[in-house]
Structure formats: structure tokens, C-alpha cells
Design goal:
The structure is a homodimer. In chain A, strand 2 and strand 3 form a beta hairpin. Chain A has one domain: Arc Repressor Mutant, subunit A, CATH 1.10.10.10. The two termini of chain A are 23 Å apart. By secondary structure, the first copy, chain A, is α+β, with helices and mostly antiparallel strands. The longest helix of chain A has 27 residues. Chains A and B meet through helix 1 and helix 4 of A and helix 1 and helix 4 of B. Chain A binds a DNA duplex through helix 2, helix 3 and strand 3.
Chain lengths: 106, 106
DNA sequence: ATATGATACATTGAAATACAAGGTATGTCA
DNA sequence: TGACATACCTTGTATTTCAATGTATCATAT
């Protein structure tokens, strides 16, 4: 379970957010902060590399839009991204079930 | 969520196993392999550093026992270890709930 | 007018985590 | 005798994440 297997749960969160609507980086961060009130926070240094990676994989496309003088970079989930979301979601379910299985023994 | 916060779930598994009975390293690995049939595997390079860390924290104590010529190193969960288990278990629950919260939105 | 804080992007260096690959040594069984 | 399971362990590397930092614009209050 090197890296990818055990984690990669952060990109799952990003993909999941984008499955509802196109979003820009800062919006993802503040949405999660609001939704997950102090459970954990998604940081810029984590998010932007993930977005770049997802884009290079073709899982998200991206376009800029000016809103009241500020340029926002919106990300959009592609068909490929939707498949990836489904995969990662299933991986997460398996992972969580596995941990809970062990915990239930004690 | 740097390292500790998001993961550290592996030590939770180890603590959980030890809460049922004293175990030796190889036994933990094979028990998990058997229990979690191909979901993931706990590897030596992961386990032994964790055991050393838990021991240095006083969460586990350790004794050797010879069984049919082979020396096994058993680990025992201390009171401190039980407290740590409770903490990590709660952390895991919060973490899993948080992820599921985001997933349910999509 | 200007300072402060929120919005919005991004990078860099360091720490934590996990594993692959390797090593040692003994018991068991064909 | 050789192969495989048991049992311990370490080293080097890849991955993931964050803290810290930087840039720039807008809104608001002073």
C-alpha cells in the first residue's frame, strides 16, 4: 500500500467536488473548509499539484473566467475524470471497509 | 493534514490487533493478509518501524519467547497504548465521516 | 488615501509515510 | 539437499502533504 493505494483520497475529494459543478481552486478549499469544519483542511500546496496532475491525465479540463476584475481558473470534470472518480470511490470504499473490519475485531 | 492527520491509520491497525492479544510481527502480517484478503498488505518495511515507534512511545511493551526453536518477539498493548488506540480510532472515524460527507454530495 | 483582510493564483523545501528490495537465520518436508 | 515457510530487520526511494512564502487584485473601514 505504497502512497497511492492507501491515500490518494485527496484527489477523490477534488474529483467529487467537481462532479457537482465546475469550480476554481480557492472555491474548493473554502468549500471543504466550510463542509468539513475543522476535521481537516485542504491546503494550496496540496491542491494545486493535484489539479495539475489531474489535468495532465485528462481527468479535468480547465478554463479561465473573469469575475469582477478577478481571473478565476475553473476546472471541469471530463468523461475520463468521471471514470476516475468512480474508480477512486470504489477504492476508498474497499479501504474503509478493510479498516473497519479489523477494528470490529477488537 | 500533514502525514499524521490524514494517515497514521496503519498504526491504528497494529494497535487494534494487539488489543485482542499479544502478537509477534510476522503474525500481524499474516493475520491481516488473511483477514483483508488482497485489499492491502502490511509490509515488513512498514510494520517494524511502527512497532519501534510505538515501543519508544510506551504504547507497547515487548518480550521474547522461544517456540519450537524459533525466537518470537511478542508485543503487548500497554495502558498507554489502549488510550492511543481509542484516540486513533476516533480520529479514523472523524476522517472517514468527513470523506463520506463530501462523497454524499455528489 | 491607505491599511487590512479576503480573494485568487502558485512554488519551494522539508517532513511523514509506505514499500520494494535486500539481508540473516532457523525449521519443515519432500 | 533444496525449497519453502517462518521470523527477524534495514536501506533507499517514491509519494503525499504541508508550512512558508510570494504575487496581485478587490472590498472595506479608518
Amino acid at each position: 500500500m505504497r502512497g497511492k493505494q492507501s491515500l490518494a483520497h485527496t484527489s477523490l475529494l477534488v474529483l467529487s467536488l467537481l462532479s457537482r459543478q465546475d469550480m476554481y481552486g480557492y472555491q474548493m478549499i473554502s468549500t471543504l473548509e466550510q463542509k468539513l469544519d475543522r476535521t481537516f483542511a485542504l491546503k494550496e500546496g496540496t491542491l494545486y499539484p493535484i489539479l495539475r496532475e489531474l489535468e495532465s491525465q485528462g481527468a479535468v479540463s480547465c478554463y479561465e473566467q473573469e469575475v469582477s476584475g478577478r481571473v478565476r481558473k475553473y476546472y471541469h470534470l471530463t468523461r475520463k475524470g468521471k471514470r476516475l472518480l468512480a474508480e477512486e470511490r470504489e477504492q476508498w470504499d474497499r479501504y474503509a471497509r478493510a479498516i473497519n473490519t479489523v477494528l470490529e475485531l477488537s
